[in-house]
Specification:
The complex is a heterodimer of chains A (140) and B (280).
Chain A lengths: L10 H8 L10 H6 L1 H8 L4 H9 L1 H6 L5 H8 L3 H6 L4 H10 L4 H6 L6 H9 L16
Chain B lengths: L1 E9 L3 H8 L9 H17 L3 E6 L14 E4 L3 E4 L12 E2 L2 H13 L5 E3 L3 E2 L1 H11 L8 E7 L9 H16 L5 E8 L16 H12 L10 H8 L7 H9 L4 E12 L2 E10 L2
Classes of the chains: A mainly alpha (140), B alpha/beta (280).
Chain lengths: 140, 280
Amino acid sequence: MTCDKHAQTDIHEYLAELEDIPGTRVFTASRARKGYWINQFAMSLMTTENRESFKTDERAYLDRWKLSDEAKAAVLRRDYNALLDLGGNVYFLSKLFSTDGLSFAEAVSTMTDMTFPEYREMMLRGGRPAQGNRSIKGGY
Amino acid sequence: MARITAGVGSSHVPLLGVAVDQGKTRDDYFGPIFAGYDWTRSWEEAEKPDVVILVYNDHASAFDANIIPTFAIGCGENYKSADEGWGPRPVPDVEGHADLAWHIAQCLILDDFDMTIINEMDVDHGLTVPLSMMFGQPDKWPCKVVPLAVNVVTYPIPSGNRCWALGEAIARAVQSFPEELNVQIWGTGGMSHQLQGPRAGLLNREWDNRFLDLLESDSEEARYIPHIEYLRETGSEGIEMVMWLVMRGALGKKVKSLHRHYHIPCSNTAIGHLVLEPAA
């Protein structure tokens, strides 16, 4: 565990490091800005009434929000990696998981290259190792 | 005078709440997890805290994308369980301790922490799952709760050092509250997990256990672990462990470790918990 108690954090270096993690979109301010309405839409699914309304006509429900066509299409096909790229955050998107009746683990597995049974098996065996998955540039 | 008598660190995985609510806590999957909490549940029954300062993060339940408080303290009289998409968890309402909460809020602001004050909010699994793990399924929670929400979702989140310093300031605030109260502080979330992207499912038993070792020790090394280390080593959501540092900071330099438990996996997550007492 490395540490430097006194260094003033350089924002540019700080943000650059956050982009150096394989298969990960850290929810930075720029992603939060970009995905604002995706996340607000997902948050609206916290009432039974809105969940029913969304399920009755997903497209019509999405049309009520300031979402790009790309974002609406990603929601309709439940492409969570695309939604992360568009600034969605998993805690907001989890309202869509539960609206679909999916467990967190099953929904999360759709973002990996595994089926849900394969993903569940990996978790039972101790999860995905950090080794080789820490840094894009460093490859460690 | 109010006193912080103990600190607890604990994961707050939502699936644990489901296991409690659906009566599955002793099945093959959940049994080893809940067995690890048996000691803590008996200990809490004996300790009978009056108030728990519960450090947790809101998972897009009370706070939407609009307002993002770095540190927020609940100063209300009571809080209901949030509807996170499945309907609210069937747990008792959470009773606040508005007098103590307002006292802490005022002290923290005078101590240079620019707190956000919350009067009304719903509380999600981040707060109710630890209550279920420590207290089971009572008709009414056996203590009052001061919710303390930390932004660990939108970057930059507060540094580990700032979280630790907040804990130190909370301890000073509690000490100056005139009423005789047995107060515990809980830091929740973690341990290693990643819930997003192709790297989802990352767990790190070795790193998590080194973190637990550090919190049990006299060392302040943990407060200086940078965000990038949590992210690389423990997954994007492992960063929640900075909230354990608020708890550890509130206990002072020396602690006695009373109980420690670690288990992999629960859903996407490594489960850990730790019970500490301030030591003279």
